[in-house]
């Protein structure tokens, strides 16, 4: 497994206002696979992703990247793990406006003081189709192009797993399809591992497997998803919830 959580519980707040965002979730994200996380708003998808990725800590249970138990790491080592072993793509592209496309892509490597693998970066630039935009700044790009830069940046250091939280949430459907196609190719052609939170059944259909959360619990998994199958599954949630 590239990443996994076991008996994951996450409680926010204290006293009367506590929210049990994760209520005993155990799930693994296999290496070399594309996994989507779905579920209603507030079901704990982002919380699960953040805790699995070492962006947030669990109240109880364990989170692992590879064989590393994140609970064993102090803040400094957790920061290093996030920098060196994990990649992120967020709904807001989070590019640095003053840097060029090329500089944004290699930013994590530059911060880490490692040059990275020039051939890999070069191949990534072609995969994301940004060869002719490398010297532009983010403000000169469309939303879809900006998100493609963010995808290239996430994969630049060849992390063990890339986590994406609604990466197509701010994109029109065509740009969204491009970004999803990229994530799929990264997994299938470049043997990467992707975990993606999404609300969109069409997006989820790009994954190898979908895991469904409801009320902080893992309620279902679906292999070889299609948009129609995912939509039917989501409708079943709506019928049951008040
Ligand atoms: N920092 C926080 N403090 C308090 N409660 C929080 C915090 N973050 C999340 N929550 C609560 O935890 C629950 C799960 O939130 P989470 O963001 O994981 O949901 P989600 O499934 O990602 O929802 P969405 O689809 O709307 O993004 C929600 O009830 C939310 O209000
Ligand atoms: Mg969320």
TrEMBL record:
<dbReference type="InterPro" id="IPR015854">
    <property type="entry name" value="ABC_transpr_LolD-like"/>
</dbReference>
<dbReference type="GO" id="GO:0016887">
    <property type="term" value="F:ATP hydrolysis activity"/>
</dbReference>
<keyword id="KW-0067">ATP-binding</keyword>
<dbReference type="InterPro" id="IPR027417">
    <property type="entry name" value="P-loop_NTPase"/>
</dbReference>
<dbReference type="GO" id="GO:0022857">
    <property type="term" value="F:transmembrane transporter activity"/>
</dbReference>
<dbReference type="InterPro" id="IPR017911">
    <property type="entry name" value="MacB-like_ATP-bd"/>
</dbReference>
<protein>
    <submittedName>
        <fullName>Peptide ABC transporter ATP-binding protein</fullName>
    </submittedName>
</protein>
<dbReference type="GO" id="GO:0098796">
    <property type="term" value="C:membrane protein complex"/>
</dbReference>
<dbReference type="GO" id="GO:0005886">
    <property type="term" value="C:plasma membrane"/>
</dbReference>
<keyword id="KW-0547">Nucleotide-binding</keyword>
<dbReference type="Pfam" id="PF00005">
    <property type="entry name" value="ABC_tran"/>
</dbReference>
<dbReference type="GO" id="GO:0005524">
    <property type="term" value="F:ATP binding"/>
</dbReference>
<keyword id="KW-0813">Transport</keyword>
<feature type="domain" description="ABC transporter">
    <location>
        <begin position="3"/>
        <end position="240"/>
    </location>
</feature>
<dbReference type="InterPro" id="IPR017871">
    <property type="entry name" value="ABC_transporter-like_CS"/>
</dbReference>
<dbReference type="InterPro" id="IPR003439">
    <property type="entry name" value="ABC_transporter-like_ATP-bd"/>
</dbReference>
<dbReference type="InterPro" id="IPR003593">
    <property type="entry name" value="AAA+_ATPase"/>
</dbReference>
